[in-house]
Amino acid sequence: LFPKAGQQIDDLLREADTAMYRAKSAGRNRIAFFELTMQHEVEERLALEQELKEALAGEQLRLDVQSQVDAQGREVAGELLLRWLHPTRGLLPPMRFIPLAEETGLILPLGEWVIEQACHTLARMRRQGLTQSLAVNVSARQFRSEDFVPRVQAILQRTGAPAQQLVFEVTESLFIQDWDNSLRRIIELVKMGIRFSIDDFGTGYSSLSYLQRLPLFELKIDRGFVQDTPQNINNKAIVQSILSMAQHLGLEVVAEGVETQAQADFLRASHCHRLQGYLYSQPQPLQDWLAHIGLND
Ligand code: C2E
Ligand code: MG
Ligand code: MG
């Protein structure tokens, strides 16, 4: 396969490295051959990484909010969803840059910015007597960073935000590794008043035993299970089992990705009283959402 015409030793090593990276990211212990498209991907990643650093410094990041409604359709909470308003690529959804931010460690400043925004907003809301809570997605890498707990504490103090209105959404992956550490941190944060929600519940590979050992507040049923209910009897059974389990464990449940009235009717009939999805509202810019819930400037 080599050397190809005109190829230098450096090219060869770089290609080998790229192929190795691909083999690792495909689950390790594999063989991968270098292909030209891989080189483009690597360059694309590097460019995006550099641009993400600039996005953090400049004001290209934006927060959208999606409402969660209760049984009466009242907005009781909002989930903050990050967007990147890229100068040339347009509006990028989180799936385009969060994984990269996690790999490169940029998720630490990025995640901190989101928590900071949430806390500033909550402090403003409290001054006007608005009691909705705000949920922030916290990635595992961010949660595990050395000084996560003191940093969160500092933000709460600096902003004067009511911690009781702040919810951290984490995924089950947090409990697969480093259990003792995660448990200790969650307990510390819960003591400050923050509540914990398990996002995309049911899609991870963790054991259910963590549910009774953690001071959790809520589960969010993954939208994959909500889809196709009530027609799909398997999804229907999974949703009902989650609801019944949560009820026995004293946990709240939010159903994600509710798109149709039939899904909402089924969920309500199954005693799920917190719903989030396009049926109620699309994610909207933070300022618009605040105006909508009645915050005055
Ligand atoms: P998630 O936390 O599970 O957020 C729900 C996602 O479902 C959002 O996608 C939302 O726009 C979308 N969604 C809401 N209702 C519906 C619906 O009725 N139908 C369908 N098909 N989709 C619906 P989005 O905003 O693209 O976010 C994707 C993921 O990116 C989030 O999933 C979350 O894991 C991650 N993410 C977003 N913001 C942040 C952040 O600030 N930090 C971290 N670490 N992750 C974030
Ligand atoms: Mg979420
Ligand atoms: Mg989710």
Number of helices: 12
Low-confidence stretches: none
**How far apart lie the N and C ends?**
65 Å
Q: Approximately how much helix is present in the residues?
A: 40-55%
Small molecules bound in the structure, each named once: ligand C2E, magnesium ion
Number of strands: 9
Structural class based on helices, strands and sheet pairing: alpha/beta
Explain the overall architecture.
The chain is an alpha/beta fold. Helix content is 47%, strand content 17%. Strands 1, 2, 3, 4, 5, 6, 7, 8 and 9 form a nine-stranded mixed beta sheet that branches. β1 (61-69) and β2 (75-86) form a beta hairpin. α4 (107-127) runs parallel beside α6 (148-159). The longest helix is centred in the first third of the chain and has 22 residues, at 36-57. It starts with 8 loop residues before the first helix and ends with a helix. The model has no long low-confidence stretch (mean pLDDT 93). The protein binds ligand C2E and magnesium ion (2 copies). One magnesium ion binds next to β6. One magnesium ion (MG) binds next to β6.
Write the layout of secondary structure elements.
Layout: H1 9-25, H2 36-57, E1 61-69, E2 75-86, E3 90-92, H3 98-104, H4 107-127, E4 133-137, H5 140-144, H6 148-159, E5 166-170, H7 179-192, E6 195-201, H8 209-213, E7 218-221, H9 223-226, H10 233-249, E8 252-255, H11 261-269, E9 284-285, H12 286-293
Parallel strand pairs: 2-4, 4-5, 5-6, 6-7, 7-8
Antiparallel strand pairs: 1-2, 1-9, 2-3
The structure holds ligand C2E and magnesium ion (MG) (2 copies).
